């Protein structure tokens, strides 16, 4: 049976490692997706966006990352579909860590954001 929780994780990120520890100390088993090795497809990104309940895809992107600016993603004329396509093509743009449940999702900045999901 698949886990109720999915953690989009980057092991090189201290915040993401802290999120994994946060889950483990609470006895919460999560499917861990190393999204740089196994990137979510466009449909999965749409679902994460929907579950986050945010107005703009930028809220789930690493907007301070050099790649974001290099790709011209700071252009205010770009809509959510274009931004999701960019994340699908460049998974490093996905903010991390992201915890997803069947109904909702949260970005672990700060980790306390996960409290509403457990």
Automatic annotation (TrEMBL):
Leading EC class? oxidoreductase
Q: Which reaction does it catalyse?
A: [glutaredoxin]-dithiol + arsenate + glutathione + H(+) = glutathionyl-S-S-[glutaredoxin] + arsenite + H2O
Q: Which CDD domains match?
A: ArsC_ArsC (cd03034)
Does the entry feature the keyword Oxidoreductase, yes or no? yes
SUPFAM superfamilies referenced in this protein's UniProt entry, alphabetically: Thioredoxin-like
* InterPro entries noted in UniProt: Arsenate_reductase, Arsenate_reductase-like, Thioredoxin-like_sf
Family classification: Belongs to the ArsC family.
- Protein name in UniProt: Arsenate reductase
| Naturally occurring in which organism (per UniProt) | Neisseria chenwenguii
Gene name, Swiss-Prot/TrEMBL: arsC
């Amino acid at each position: 049976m698949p886990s109720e929780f999915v953690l989009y994780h980057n092991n090189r990120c201290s915040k993401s490692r802290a999120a994994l520890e946060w889950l483990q100390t609470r006895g919460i088993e999560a499917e861990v997706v190393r999204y740089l090795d196994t990137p979510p497809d466009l449909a999965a990104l749409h679902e994460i966006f929907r579950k986050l309940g945010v107005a703009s895809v930028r809220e789930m992107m690493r907007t301070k990352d050099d790649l974001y600016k290099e790709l011209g993603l700071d252009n205010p004329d770009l809509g959510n579909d274009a931004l999701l396509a960019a994340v699908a093509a460049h998974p490093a743009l996905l903010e991390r860590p992201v915890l997803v449940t069947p109904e909702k999702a949260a970005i672990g900045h700060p980790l306390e954001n996960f409290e509403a999901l457990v």
